[in-house]
């Protein structure tokens, strides 16, 4: 088939043109499929977001699209055509593919009609300068992509300013994490730091650092949040917060529990904390 004659290193022959691809062995498709693996996401500095609405939101928020992929079902859809035009205007590539190809790229049986490949964006810790009643969530070695995605989504919902990933964490740009964020990955800035970097940065931070700990002595509802920036520090799913991170916190909060469970799920605990911290700031009529 003449659409499959491209060499791996040549990429798209003519950037900015719509290209039709139907074969799973096409090198461009292979590159896109490789984005399911962290090593290749990092090499390409890219990640995949699924769904037309997400791609439109991402473009509106100024994210850089590298490639727009849509299935035949999207052909003639005016929203898809608009997104394709925007992609081309920004120098991105547009691929029209079979549903089978989208399913292979996103590793799903019932894939979305549209998929966008975006440039990864990670803020450096030094760029974070909390002010007012800003809230940030710092996650110690978060492991589960569903938890991370859910936390990003929840952080977005409460108007938190960003996520700080401490140490070796699951990738915020994996298919599973991005999916769980439901688009909030584009709204909430993510920062990565080693534990040492975080502890150094912390010395220059004059707001409140609230850690959460199963041995925390403070009922999370008794803390005065709201008049200064807050960094909420959450522990790893298995091990909780290590002592050196816990001792760097101004307060160690606990959510009282009844029943048999020893602890709450990390994303749930983060949600409970965030809604308490933002209690005074969130109003029914301030949402969208
Ligand atoms: N086995 C771990 C431990 O001993 O800490 C359980 C960790 S828990 C599943 C994951 C994280 O959620 C904790 O490190 C803490 O940040 C938060 N968390 C869960 N339940 C909590 C509670 N009742 N109070 C405060 N934080 C809690």
Automatic annotation (TrEMBL):
GO biological process: methylation; RNA processing
UniProt keyword Transmembrane helix present: no
Keywords for the protein's UniProt record, in alphabetical order: Methyltransferase, Transferase
GO molecular function, one term: RNA binding
Keyword field contains Methyltransferase: yes
A GO cellular-component term linked to this record: cytoplasm
Gene3D superfamilies, per database record: 3.30.1330.30, 3.40.1280.10
Listed transmembrane segments: none
Record-annotated RNA 2-O ribose methyltransferase substrate binding domain positions: 48-124
InterPro entries assigned to the protein according to its UniProt record, in alphabetical order: Alpha/beta_knot_MTases, MRM3-like_sub_bind, Ribosomal_eL30-like_sf, rRNA_Methyltransferase, SpoU_MeTrfase, SpoU_subst-bd, tRNA_m1G_MTases_N
Family in the record: Belongs to the class IV-like SAM-binding methyltransferase superfamily. RNA methyltransferase TrmH family.
The name this protein goes by in its record: RNA methyltransferase
Highest classification ranks of the organism: Bacteria, Pseudomonadati, Pseudomonadota, Alphaproteobacteria, Hyphomicrobiales
């Amino acid at each position: 088939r003449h659409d499959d004659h491209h060499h791996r290193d040549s990429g798209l022959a003519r950037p900015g043109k719509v290209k039709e691809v139907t074969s799973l062995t096409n090198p461009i498709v292979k590159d896109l499929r490789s984005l399911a693996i962290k090593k290749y996401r990092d090499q390409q500095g890219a990640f995949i977001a699924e769904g037309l609405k997400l791609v439109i939101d991402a473009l509106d928020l100024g994210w850089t699209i590298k490639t727009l992929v849509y299935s035949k079902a999207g052909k003639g859809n005016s929203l898809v055509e608009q997104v394709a035009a925007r992609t081309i205007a920004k120098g991105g590539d547009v691929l029209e593919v079979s549903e089978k190809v989208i399913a292979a790229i996103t590793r799903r049986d019932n894939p979305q009609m549209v998929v966008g490949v975006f440039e990864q964006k990670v803020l450096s810790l030094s760029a974070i300068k909390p002010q007012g009643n800003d809230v940030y969530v710092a996650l110690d070695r978060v492991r589960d992509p569903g938890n991370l995605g859910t936390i990003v989504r929840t952080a977005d919902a409460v108007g938190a300013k960003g996520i700080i990933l401490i140490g070796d964490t699951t990738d915020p740009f994996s298919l599973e994490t991005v999916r769980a964020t439901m688009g909030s990955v584009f709204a909430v800035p993510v920062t990565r730091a080693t534990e040492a970097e975080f502890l150094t940065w912390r010395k220059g931070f004059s707001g409140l650092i609230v850690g959460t700990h199963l041995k925390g002595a403070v009922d999370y509802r008794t803390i005065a949040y709201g008049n200064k920036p807050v960094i909420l520090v959450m522990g790893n799913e298995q091990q909780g917060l290590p002592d050196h991170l816990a001792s760097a916190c101004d307060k160690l909060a606990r959510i009282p529990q009844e029943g048999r469970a020893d602890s709450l799920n990390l994303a749930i605990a983060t949600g409970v904390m965030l809604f308490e911290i933002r209690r005074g700031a969130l109003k029914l009529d301030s949402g969208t």
